[in-house]
Amino acid sequence: MKNPWVYKHLVKWMEKNHLSKDTIHAFASRWQTLGDNDSILCPACFAEDEEEHLVAEKVRGEVELLFCVECKNEFEIPIPN
Ligand SMILES: [Zn+2]
Fold first, then answer.
1. Global pTM value
2. Which end of the chain has the least Cβ crowding within 10 Å, N or C?
3. What is the pLDDT of residues 23-51, one digit of tens each?
4. How far apart are CA 41 and CA 48, in angstroms?
5. Is-contact 66 56, C-beta < 8 A?
6. Which residue stretches of 1-81 are H helix?
7. Are 27 and 8 in contact (CB under 8 A)?
8. Residue 57 C-alpha to ligand 1 middle, in angstroms?
9. In the sheet that 63-68 helps form, which strands lie side by side, from edge to edge?
């Protein structure tokens, strides 16, 4: 699986934002198909049936910020130590 740590936190974001279980399951299935060279999917855009990718914006303390240029959402991914 690609980036299980990032995936875990994106799913947490989806749960926190009350996206449906179906959407989260669909995201999980789609994530399983990602290869190492594929981009990280934006969960907010995915919920709108769009596939956009996240770019690593910056590291702030112990958190990496991933940013979606399409929906402008920012995702905080704690850096595992
Ligand atoms: Zn997005």
1. 0.91
2. C
3. 999 999 999 999 988 999 999 999 999 99
4. 12
5. yes
6. 4-16, 21-32, 43-46
7. no
8. 14
9. 54-60, 63-68, 74-78
